[in-house]
Amino acid sequence: MKLFVRTCLAVAFVATTSCTPPVQMQECGPANCSGCCQAGQCQAGVTEGACGRGGSTCAPCQLGSTCSLGVCSGFNPTGGGFVTAGGSAAGGSAMAGGAAGGSVMAGGTAGGSTTAGGTASAGGAAGGIATAGGSATAGGAATAGGSASAGGSAAGGSAAGGSATCAGTLVECSSMCVDPLSSLEHCGGCGRACGQGEVCNRGTCQVLPLDCTTGPGCGPGFFCDPISRRCMAGCRLIADCPMGATCNAGTCQCPSGQHACGQQCVSDTATSSCGTSCTACAQPANGTATCAASSCSFTCASGYVRSGSACVDVNECLTANGGCSANATCTNTVGSRTCACNTGFTGDGVTCTDVDECATNNGGCAAAPGGVCTNTPGSRTCACASGFTGNGMTCTDIDECATNNGGCAAAATCLNTPGSRTCTCNMGYSGNGTDIDECLVNNGGCAVPGGVCTNTPGSRTCACATGFTGTGMTCTDTDECATNNGGCAAAPAGVCTNTPGSRTCACATGYTGDGVSCVDVDECLTGNGGCDPNATCANTVGSRTCTCPVGFAGNGVTCTCGGVTCRTPGAPSCSTPTSRVVPSTPATCPANACVYSMMNEACPNGCVMGACVVWRQTASGSGTNRPSPRASHAMAYDSARQRVVLFGGTDGVGRLSDTWEYDGTTWTQVFPTVSPPGRERHAMAFDAQRSRVVMFGGVNSNGELQDTWIFTGTTWVELATTGTRPAARVEHAMAYDSLRQRVVLFGGSNLGFALGDTWEWNGGAWTQVALTGTTPPGYRGHAMAFDSTRNRVLLFGGGGGTATYQTATWEWDGTTWVSQGPVGSGPPREFVAMAFDSRRGKTVLFGGSFTSTSTTHYDETYEWSGTSPWVQVATTGTKPTLRRQHAMAYDSNRGRVVMFGGANGQARNSQTWEYGP
């Protein structure tokens, strides 16, 4: 059942009721209205249709009631009794079982339980109507967070966090919307509380009468029960109901979609009285309250969020920094937020750009170039540049020159500069302190030629070179040849040629050497000195003479027989015209073709200069005036001193170390200041270009030797003991190649193994020759000689590692060994001796042995001309005995092959033999 309040509707029932507004109209208020308020206007409040006083709400008096002193009073015929003054509850009449915020006679207590024992919904609204059978619990919870007055709750109290905007007849008191017509705490106005036992009836605190028939009567929605004389909820007449309602079976009913609110029916969706409780939707601060579907709906403003019935501020900064830049500070404000860029950034806060502090005043760092400002996000760092020291805010230049001359060169000057230093080369220096070599440009200003510029630190000095005189700035060439022939060999052998600053030495024609030392060349050794083959070549100092033999005519370079043959047996002389035999046809005399000598001797081997070519033993020397008997010695002819040189060998007891010389008449022992160790089975050759006897290898008590010695004519000198050289060896052979000016060495034996390597000595070093093609196998005990007519080194004889002895002949042209095949006659042999007879152009070979049997030795003589096989010469007459391990050398001055010593079995001899004319 609904209870209603009516404002003006009783005209149809009470004749005295009038809704005509009083003449005096003004805005209602407790202070300015002596009557009652209706629709916001002040009324007289003395009529039954508008009864009330002191700013209270005008109320129509029920039928049978009259308005007296602003209060309806009198008998209520429809209610069956009287209503005492003030007997109605504030804002309405109590229905059976309970009154909203007022005293109920019928078994109810103010704000307490009804006789029906029911409970008022939501504790009962202040000025509202309790549901039938229920009672309001004192101090029930206020809607929208308000505080309840005694017996009810504040309708639409203040929202949490803000004050309510009250609608209709409600007013705001203590942040709550209250009805001053029925609120016990704010009856008739804020802070006007009713006393104990009083009720607020139409804005006035009253003590309700027990008999409604005697009081002012029941309010709208109530009627006075004549039997109980109590105000009963409901209606008897339409006048008992609010405006717009109908009385149906004792109940006031508003049209569908409306409810009673005060003295009229209003829409269920009216914000001012939302739903059916006549509770206004309190307008929260920062939001809007509207009524929808009979309930209040809240909409919070931007920046707020609903919390209960209140709109509370949202802290936007808690989410994604409130949409501000990551480099900004978000500050929450009521309903919004603000964004402010952090220090070091600029912008609107939503977008912030780093401020380059370094762009202004170097960021507060020390001024450049000492201070280095480095911009960082939102800030900057300060440091001192290289060459400065400090904390970046203050930087002091470092004087680099104070330490180690600033790292400059010692020849440079260091100049300190802000943050660094400069290095400047001192006079005479360039680059990073490197000394300038003034001598590289224009000889440093010294004389040219002759001036010697010597660079010095920062400068240079000038002096005259050797061979010049002067200050160095000017130099005059010295003619070295004017004094002592410039140090060259004495004239006429040495030729001094002055050159700028020096001189050159050369040997004159007919001499050989380096110019400082010149030795006469024995021209007769090569091609008979250019003389006619029938002429006699006689060496002279610096030249030679050619003499035609008896029976020949010419200048020696050319000799002819005058169209006659050589002498015949019995003819006294070729020079005697009557003794000449004129051939049937003109002819010339072939060289060495005489059959008989001038001594009328038969010459089976030919004759030279009218003498037969034969072996002759010389009578030179006897006893200690000749070398002792020996074998395995070595000899070479020193053409510069015209001596045969002999060294070493063995006498069967030990190895000898004596040196002997033979001049063609006498053997003489020489005693050099230095001599090689004693040895045997070594090899020697004469280096005519350097006038030195060269010796290599052999064996003594220490084993096989690897040393090289030269004999200068006065002493022995050992040469290169390290570096490249032939291996130690014995039983090898050597010969001097006068065309290529090389000593050639081949073969030998090393620890019993026959060697087949070829080496050459150029006067300073040994060089092994790389061979190609067919080469001689390894040989030992062979012999070698240089054929100066054909410019070939000839090799013959020797034994191999398997005791095979060869008869093959080999020739070496300086590049290749060429085999001449097993030419000639006679058995193979080793330990032979050979020498080349340059006058006759023949190589002479003698002796040797075939050592497969110890007694096989030879006394044969063979000759090799290079164009014919080896030819054995006549063996008749006097000749050397059987021998091996002897030595031979050709004396070019006398045209004789000289042989000494040798062994026959264990017997050794000291014989000297010569072979020639």
3D structure, described in words:
With 917 residues, the protein is mostly beta strands. Helix content is 0%, strand content 34%. The strands form 33 sheets. The protein has a four-stranded antiparallel β-sheet, with no helix packed on it. A hairpin with a 6-residue loop joins strand 74 and strand 75. It is rod-shaped, with a radius of gyration of 80 Å.
Write the layout of secondary structure elements.
Blueprint: E1 36-38, E2 41-43, E3 46-47, E4 50-51, E5 56-57, E6 66-68, E7 71-76, E8 81-83, E9 118-119, E10 134-135, E11 148-149, E12 152-153, E13 171-173, E14 176-178, E15 199-201, E16 204-206, E17 222-225, E18 230-233, E19 246-248, E20 251-253, E21 258-261, E22 264-267, E23 287-292, E24 295-300, E25 304-307, E26 310-313, E27 328-333, E28 336-341, E29 345-347, E30 352-354, E31 371-376, E32 379-384, E33 388-390, E34 395-397, E35 412-417, E36 420-425, E37 429-430, E38 434-435, E39 451-456, E40 459-464, E41 468-470, E42 475-477, E43 494-499, E44 502-507, E45 511-513, E46 518-520, E47 536-540, E48 543-547, E49 553-554, E50 559-560, E51 607-608, E52 611-612, E53 614-617, E54 634-638, E55 643-647, E56 659-662, E57 667-670, E58 683-687, E59 692-696, E60 699-700, E61 703-704, E62 708-711, E63 716-718, E64 733-737, E65 742-750, E66 753-761, E67 766-768, E68 783-787, E69 792-796, E70 809-812, E71 817-819, E72 833-837, E73 842-846, E74 861-864, E75 871-872, E76 887-891, E77 896-900, E78 903-904, E79 907-908, E80 912-916
Parallel strand pairs: 1-5, 9-10
Antiparallel strand pairs: 1-2, 3-4, 6-7, 7-8, 11-12, 13-14, 15-16, 17-18, 19-20, 21-22, 23-24, 25-26, 27-28, 29-30, 31-32, 33-34, 35-36, 37-38, 39-40, 41-42, 43-44, 45-46, 47-48, 49-50, 51-52, 53-80, 54-55, 55-56, 56-57, 58-59, 59-62, 60-61, 62-63, 64-65, 65-66, 66-67, 68-69, 69-70, 70-71, 72-73, ...
